[in-house]
C-alpha cells in the first residue's frame, strides 16, 4: 500500500480541509495500517509493504514526526517534482 496524502497539515489539494491535527493523523494512519498489514501477514506468511509519497520541501517535512512515522513504513518516496512548480 502506498499512501499519497498531499499534504498533511500543509496546504494540500484542498487547503480549506487541512487541520494541524492532520500531522498526527497521518502518523496514526500509518501505524494502524502497519498493524493491520502485520496481522494479515502473520496469517498468510507474507510481508505486506507500506510506503508513502512524501513532500520534498522543508516547510511541509517539518510538520511530520518522521522518526515515529518511519517505524511503520518500508519505503518513503520523495516527490522531488515539488522542487519545480507553478510558483
From TrEMBL:
GO terms for biological process: carbohydrate metabolic process. Residues 1-87 form the GH18 domain. The keyword Electron transport does not apply. The gene is chiA like gene. The lineage of its organism: unclassified sequences, environmental samples. InterPro entries: GH, Glyco_hydro18_cat, Glycosyl_Hydrlase_18. It comes from uncultured organism. Signal peptide: none annotated. SUPFAM superfamilies: (Trans)glycosidases. PANTHER family: CHITINASE, CHITINASE 12-RELATED. This is Family 18 glycoside hydrolase. The keyword Electron transport does not apply.
Amino acid at each position: 500500500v502506498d499512501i499519497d496524502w498531499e499534504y498533511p497539515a500543509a496546504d494540500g489539494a484542498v487547503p480549506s480541509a487541512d487541520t494541524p491535527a492532520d500531522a498526527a493523523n497521518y502518523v496514526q494512519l500509518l501505524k494502524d495500517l502497519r498493524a493491520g498489514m502485520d496481522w494479515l501477514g502473520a496469517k498468510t506468511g507474507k510481508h505486506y509493504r507500506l510506503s508513502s509519497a512524501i513532500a520534498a520541501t522543508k516547510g511541509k517535512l517539518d510538520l511530520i514526526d518522521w522518526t515515529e512515522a518511519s517505524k511503520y513504513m518500508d519505503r518513503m518516496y520523495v516527490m522531488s517534482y515539488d522542487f519545480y512548480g507553478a510558483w
